[in-house]
Amino acid sequence: MATSHDLLDEQQSGPRAQQPVAQKPAVGGPATAVTSDNSYLDRALSTLEQAETNLADAAGLDQPAADSPRRVGVAVSILMPVYNERETIREIVAQVQAVGVHQEIVIVDDCSTDGTRDLLIELDRQEDIRVVMHGYNRGKGAALRTAMAHASGDVLMIQDADLEYDPSDYKSLLEPIERGEADVVYGSRFLENAHQDPSFMHRLGNGLLTWASNVTTGLKLTDMETCYKVFRRDALRGMMLREDRFGFEPEITAKLARRKCRIVEAPIGYNSRGYDEGKKIGVRDGLRALWCIVRYAKWD
In the 8-state DSSP scheme, what is residue 168? Predict the structure, then answer.
């Protein structure tokens, strides 16, 4: 098909091209002549490009929304087991959202009886929050299994529902995975400042369990019992997890080690709370953890 430029060339190359071809005048106006001046095409294209730019800006196609701090990168699911955390649940969720690295927050309520569930029903209305409720109290490990089953992210990160762990550490925890240097990252409370936990007995217990875990797994961790564990989803694919309570920590550590996953640690902050403030792990859980260290070092 001939273009407007082709037609103009034909008009100017034939025998009649010696003189401009007069055009029929518009009603009430003078006659106009065909010309080879194509500047009107440049002006039209420039106007079209500006219109497309304005449309993209209006639709927000070239830049993220100003009120959204979230990064574009791996899709992160925050897994949050909850049991009787009415006093802290709103605050910890707000802190997670303020950091803004997540795709979703999957909260599993382990049959709270203190009014936490009422707050979770309200939080579930938010677009980035998914709440799942257990019909009876099953334990932290069981709640995490439920959260994993409902999570859709490429990376899974565990967050307790109290205020002991600070979500501002998320970015440093994610960096080794984003750089392709690790499959799993543990946030260590003791890597830089072992005295963040003021309780000598807690430090002693954690040290004993971490040492025993290292002996059986060949790892060199400083804080096996940490809440902050971050996993590439592929590292957990097909893994059968059995422990319902705090035995989850040594179990998953042993099974990741047996899979030869690349596990690194990153220092984190820690604001320990006492039993009068809702701390739940006890001596019985420590003894169970020792049993799990031995059991899962060789058996599923």
Answer: G
Residues 241-267, buried b or exposed e (16+ Cβ, 10 A)?
bebbbbbbbbbbbbbbbeeebebbbbb
Give residue limits of the domains in the chain.
Answer: 73-298
SS3 188: strand
Scan for tokens 């807690």, then name that residue.
202
Residues 73-298, CATH architecture: Alpha-Beta Complex (3.90)
Distance between CA atoms of residues 153 and 2, nearest Å:
54
- Cβ within 8 Å of residue 36, ≥6 positions away: 8, 12
- Bridge partner list, 265: 186
CA 206 from centroid of its chain's CA atoms = 28
Answering whether pTM is above 0.70, one says yes
pLDDT per residue over 264-293, tens digit each? 999 999 998 655 555 556 778 888 999 999
Strand 76-82, strand 184-188: pairing: unpaired
- DSSP state at residue 207: H
Amino acid identity, position 151: A
CA separation for the pair 116, 16 (Å, rounded) = 90
For residue 82, what are the β-bridge partners? 109
Chain segment 140-199, per-residue pLDDT in tens:
999 999 999 999 999 999 999 999 999 999 999 999 999 999 999 999 999 988 777 777
